[in-house]
Design a protein that fits this description.
Layout: H1 2-58
Amino acid sequence: MFYIILYNMEERDKIMDEKVYKTMNGAGALNIVMGVIALVVGLTGGILLIISGAKLIAGKSKILF
């Protein structure tokens, strides 16, 4: 009887470990994807700001006050 309970506990622990591993794997993949997206958005925003600033500086002689 004790052997059956111990066996079931070991099986349950193994199944729980597999579930935790799969969950952590999915979370890690999601973090990588979100990091890449944040990097792309940040670079794109920075490039657009540099371009618009350069256009403003280039056109400042056309502004009359």
